[in-house]
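Entry 14. Structure prediction run on the chain below.
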Amino acid sequence: MNRKSIIGIACGFVLTASIGTAALTPKSVTVEPAMRRRAVETVYATGTIEVDVRVALRAKIGGTVANDVAQEGDALAKGARILRLENKQIATALAGGRVELAAAKVSAGSTSPQLAALRAAGGMLQADLSVARSELARSNVLAQSNAIPRAELERERARVSQLSSQLMSNLQQQKALALELKTNAARLGENVESLAAQADDTEVRAPFEGTVLRRHVAPGEPVAPNQLLVEFGDARKLLAQLTVDEDEIAHVHDGAHVVLTVGASRDRVIHGIVQRVNPDADRSRRAFTVRVLLDDADGIAKSGMSVTANVIAREEPSALTVPAGAVRDGTVWIVSGGKLEKRRVKTGITDTSFVQITEGVSDGEIVVPSPQAWFEEGRRVSAKRAR
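Output returned:
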């Protein structure tokens, strides 16, 4: 064997030994233990702050806005006047109607001049009838003894009949007139009530204790019936109107806790509770509206502010978790006895950092947070805890 061959064989032994040593040396992998921690599943949403009760007050009649109007932001008690509409036509008609009604009530009352005249005429007829009846009775006695002619007796009978008819007619006229006067007074009363109601409609009042949120008219401005005048609400009771994507709405339920941040105070949070999920989706946005009652003791929120929110869909106070990157296609790699072992797992709550493991890994087992392509079952590794 020449010298070159010996050197070649020696080199081969050295190379083989080097490769074998490298294969036997465990590779270093970063690991973390499976740990229990609070796991929360949230649904992201955006929306705006609104007052819980908000009403739009419209004009019931036309008119011109008077100068004494409430300002936006004014807090008012129930029944307090917000604004007044001037309507001269209604005011004039109401004043004239009240005068006519007062006169009609006098005419229909016990001192009515028209009724007094008829009653006086009736009294005279009653007196004449009494005299005529007395004379007829005397004539009947005289006629039995033929002391007076029969024709005179008939004239007196006709006189009594005529006066009786006239008295009956007078009494009927009294009743008819009294009814007419009362009916007229009642009609005028109804007209005055109607005009008074229209006059009341010129005043727009607070339907409940609350705040003038927005005024849509100014003093001196003419308005038409049904025109929007004011938006009114209780600014002390706020809620958030959130928009939740249709793919996420199944995870949102009444009573769920919500954590919100307001546009103007990103570093401060407001807590709330889901009050109601609208059962009908907004088809254009493929989303649902969710009402959230707010607990804002610090007064951060104001009506109209934008918010971002996380609705707590599920929460586990002590969930067994592994790093989110450790789970690949339903499996994780663990290090047991210095060797790699692949485990199939079942997962639960997932967020950007951690995944809940419900089956397949036990407390404290060592998990590889970032599996590598060279991993294989039984491969020896050197575990190094992540910092």
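The radius of gyration is 50 Å.
Filed with the rest of this week's runs.
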